[in-house]
Amino acid sequence: MNEVNPKDGRTVREVYTNKKGGFCTECGGTVESFGGLEKCPFCGTKGVPCVFQDDVNIVINWHELRILCVWAENWALQCDKAKDGGLQKTIISIMRRLHAQHLDKAQESPLSLLAEIAQIKEKYSGTEVEGL
Predict the structure, then answer these.
(1) CA-to-CA dists, residue 83 to 26, 43, 77, 88, angstroms
(2) For residues 23 and 11, is the Cβ–Cβ distance under 8 A?
(3) Helices 113-123 & 62-82, crossing angle to 10 degrees?
(4) Which one-letter DSSP state was computed for residue 59?
(5) What is the pLDDT of residue 3?
(6) In this structure, which of 19, 20, 28, 74 has its CB flanked by the most CB atoms within 10 Å?
């Protein structure tokens, strides 16, 4: 939650403390108010933003979270192939925010299958992965 957003230079925690406003689901840009906005002022997406007041804490096992993320990543990839969409970008943005909350776990076992495959290729140089 202390990751600095390059779009506005503030951390989510800095904006979160006032419990007003929220952030863009795609780029993570934070705003103190949604008044008058028709799209994200940082990336231009017209997707529904996240409201800080809707934040919740959830207890989940990291392995369970990985399963959900890998399935979401795969589904987004399939949807984006079927039509020109940006669902995978949104899923990746959500996973980045989850990673930032648990950097130790994310480095040990990434939430993304693509990131895990990249780790394997790095660890075992010369490894080829087929079928992706």
Answers:
(1) 18, 21, 10, 12
(2) no
(3) 110
(4) -
(5) 62
(6) 28
Q: Find residue 51's DSSP bridge partners.
A: 22
Secondary element (H or E) of residue 58: none
Q: What confidence tens digit (pLDDT) does each residue in 50-84 have?
A: 998 898 889 999 999 999 999 999 999 888 777 76
Enclosing H/E stretch for 91: helix 87-101
Distance of CA 62 to the CA centre of its chain: 16
Rounded CA separation 12/23 (Å): 8
Confidence of residue 102 (pLDDT cuts 50, 70, 90): very high
Work out the angle at residue 114's Cα, subtended by the Cα atoms of residues 94 and 52, and round it to the nearest 5 degrees.
Answer: 5
SS3 23: strand
Distant-in-sequence contacts of 22-27, Cβ < 8 A, 24+ apart: 22/49, 22/50, 22/51, 22/52, 22/53, 22/54, 23/49, 23/50, 23/52, 24/49, 24/50, 25/49, 25/50, 25/90, 25/93, 25/94, 26/86, 26/89, 26/90, 26/93, 27/93
> Residue 86 has which token pair?
């940006």
**What Rg, from alpha-carbon coordinates, does the chain have?**
16
